[in-house]
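Researcher: Go.
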Amino acid sequence: MRSNSLWFRLLASSAVISAVLLLTAAFLLNTIFVHALEQNFDQRLRSAMDGLLASIDISANGKPVLQSQLDDTRFALPLSGWYWQVRDNTSGETYLASPSLLEQLIPAAKNGTSTDGSGLFAYSAQDAKGTNLRVIHQDISLFGKPQKYDVRVAGNFSELSGEITSFQHTLFGLLAGLGLALLSALVLQVRFALRPLAAMRRQMNDIRAGKIDHLDGNYPNEIQPLATELNLLVDANREIVNRARMQVGNLAHALKTPLSVITNEIGKNASSLAKKLREQLDVMRDQINLYLERARREARAQTAGSSTEIAPVVEALARTIKRMRRDQKIDFQISVPADLLFRGEKQDLEEMLGNLLDNAGKWAKSKCRITAAPLAHDNRDARAWLEIIVEDDGPGIAKHLRDQALKRGQRLDETKSGSGLGMSIIIETATMYAGGMTLDSSDLGGLKAVLKLPMVV
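Model: Structure:
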């Protein structure tokens, strides 16, 4: 899955959005849960404060006294985290305090305290042991007296940490499961959404392989115009190729007839001028045949829907070369998969391999090896490629002479028959299919020719 693919973009963007939403939901739910616990805990502390105020009376000297202890025994356990105290709001003198405080004081409120609108403050603090406390604080007048008393009740909020942790584990576990379920659903959704594009790609491959003529199918509205335009492009390409073929044929007939007439007329004259004209006419005829053949190959190479089995072509050419060079007793070793297909015309493949095998047979001592295999797919190129390797055990070509051997009309050894055009024809034809050919040294001792061509998948 490449980073610039639609699959990656859709899946990555959806996954990022889902992750952000799930994390936001986790944060909000956790905040709401903790806030609800705090409110519930504040209510418990408010109930304890109400019980405390109900147990306070004013003595004869005007000081508050506790008539009865609170029912909650945690206020009696030393440093239990559950405390209460009553102090003079003006002098700061402590009149009453729970036994659990052990002469300590409940910490005062810090910034960020909250109130419910009735003068009741709630805040968080820590005691001498470092226990997390939840404290409520209210200034109260007892029995209508003008004097204000600072009444505080604190509870051990750490007791709820286990409940909070359990909730968080459950919450994050559920959200993680939901995230995995969403990711699976996204994968299925993206696969389902991109299925028409995959079907279109397969049909385009079938068109290039010659299995079908047009894209056919009920595509979604978003890509149906693309399918229509591709069909029109295929039709236009086929029409251009057919027109080019017809024009090539017409040009061949139009030129060959006048040349034949001129040649016949000159043939009646034995002058030196006539001889020179005949030579030039032969050159013109060769050039016309050469460029007409090149145009024919280019037209075939651009035709969509042509494919050729490689193995039968190689085997037939090897048999032919073997009969032609019966005296050399060449052993042709062929290793070509039966299902390997060249995306192009059979005639062009025969022309390229015919020149390669003829050259290998010409120079081989006793052995030629022909192998073919698909090339590894390059993500930068949507096309599939194959390579055909022809090797021999002949003298080979020196590295500094290989470029010269690929030039048109170049012959490195005049003792061997040939025109020197074979290699250039191979390169021209392979180039028309966007392929190419390279020369190297073979482990057999001779030349190794590597032909790269498009493949049908």
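Model: The chain has a mean pLDDT of 82.
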